[in-house]
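Q: Here's a chain of 248 amino acids. Please give me its 3D structure as tokens.
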Amino acid sequence: MAPYLRLRQICLVAPHLAPVISDIAEIMGLAVCYRDGNVAKYGLENALLPVDTILLEVVAPFQDGTTAGRFIEKTGGHGGYMAIFCCNDPDERGRTANALGVRTANVIDHVPYHGVQLHPRDCRAAFIEFNHTAGSDDILGPYPPAGPDWQKFIRKDVTQALTVVEMQSPDPQGLAQHWGKIIGVEPVGTELKLPNATFRFVNGASEIMSALEFRVADVARVLATAKARGVAVEGNAFALGGVTFRLS
């Protein structure tokens, strides 16, 4: 199989799912496709919403002592938790990361899905996961974490695409180079360009996933909906789920 890499999923973490999930769905015109009972073993509950073929997930701890809960405490509530990539060979990419000194934190093996999660402390800013689902080389093919029929929940009348993931660091060039080595993409300036999204690294006080940029059909309409939901709007952006949602 020819090597490939695409952004498959962005995971945010929140203290509670409500009202974050309902706010995202209402403001962005998205639909929940799945709630995965398998994450309960990690002390979490979740919900996933497809943004075209990229999944946006929010997880929330329901018990003390979870990794997600510690992440919230460490980041002061910044919610950009995980960047998840689909690829041809997660194990090979995991070995490449290990050779760079990035440890494997968890391996998930639920046939036909296989995922390798890397340690966030070594990745810096957020978890990185590589995964592959047998028979899913079609981007609209099966993807078990999103449920059996996630494709039926794609809504594009309001939000059309997730285009940019913004990463913040006091050393954005260094973080871009570090992530580029891990995922195997050469930086263009301070950007990593994938076939379906761009990771942009910007200057900031701490290393976090700071913003998500979306292409929407009508920016003013989305901003008006956010205001109606009681979400504070600044320019073409608003804070939701611990990150900035930026519209274009």
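Q: Can you summarize the key feature?
A: The mean pLDDT is 94.
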